[in-house]
Amino acid sequence: MDIPISKVAERLNLEEDVLKNAIERRVITLCKYRDKRYLVFKKKVRHVERGTVLFLNERMDVVMGYPKIRRALVLDPTVKKYFIDQVVVEEKLNGYNVRVVNIDNEILGITRGGRICPFTTKKVLKLLNTDILKDHPKITLCGEMIGLNNPYVPHYYPEVDREIYRDESTVIRENLGLYIFDIREGDRSLPVEERNKLLEEYNVPYVKPLGVFNKEEIEEIKSTVVKLDRENREGIVMKDPSMLVDPIKYTTHYTHCQDLAVAFRYTFDLGIHFMFSRLIREGFQSYEFNEGEKEMERRALSIGKSIIYPMVESIKEVARGELITEDFELYFDSEEDVEEFLRYLKEVHISYVVKEREVLKNRIFRVIIGKVYPSTRDKIKSYLGGSLW
Ligand code: ATP
Ligand code: MG
Question: Which residues form the RNA ligase Pab1020 C-terminal domain (predicted)?
């Protein structure tokens, strides 16, 4: 496959045998984006995180995988036990993780799994002042791409409504934004204040702290969670101001229900994988928030509805002979960009159908892509046809 094994092994501090073996098992794969060839770690190999990318360029640039953020099931005593002194509470945005880097003077958007995504890469150029990466080429900007019009996690955020075209008769809007939450160099994160200062200097949008608390101030942290829940937002990520310990996360009832609703719409594709963890989170949350009979009943009802309504809806859809898809409305600048992205989806083995495709004013290309969930359709169809469980 033309991979300089010994050089790569040395660069990552891995033994050659370990590297060769991982390549044979396809845990490490060789990918291409335009003229760039790069290796992707699909799983953790020794100390090298999942999602790590190694570019096969002159310098063999490495972009580390974004580390997992562990979860608190109860805030008390977890926060007190875990943090050193102060805790920065940030909003947890519900989108997809993007690492933005400068490789040989080209700005690239890398997904959590370690692929250079052509959609993301092009949007990054519109959403960020990339001078920051020209002046500091060694840093990785880590952020959350959010909004309705992205191909991975479509979730509406009012603050990222952008007008992309307007004349007397038409307005075209795209709901998409990128908020940076971490600046990394190697495997080190910049302290929160330093991060914010640098981002402000370049006018780069970032996740703003909801508050800085003493680690004993759990009630205040709980209040921010209650408020976010009411506003239908995902949750919080808590960080040490100097980033000396890893961040931890905590999410809202609203999000758990949302997740269940999505999971049960695609019953046999996502249901099993999502259900148990969300229910456990709800159990601990109900306990920690000291719920009485009425509040618990309300929680139980909304959990139940999130499960049963979307599932029945899917069964009805299959019964009517419809395809179960998750639809993404995306805006592109050219026909080539659309084609490049569709090729990319094939490469990463996402099956899809193109549901709508039109050219709007100012040569804006609007596409609706339906991601296909095959197991859900096939299994529902088979049970409806009389198959036994
Ligand atoms: P993980 O492996 O980290 O648990 P996951 O796929 O289960 O990831 P999430 O439950 O969404 O993902 O939680 C972690 C992710 O949250 C981060 O990878 C990041 O993309 C996202 N995120 C959103 N807002 C923030 C923030 N303010 N700080 C850190 N991460 C954030
Ligand atoms: Mg997420």
Answer: 262-387
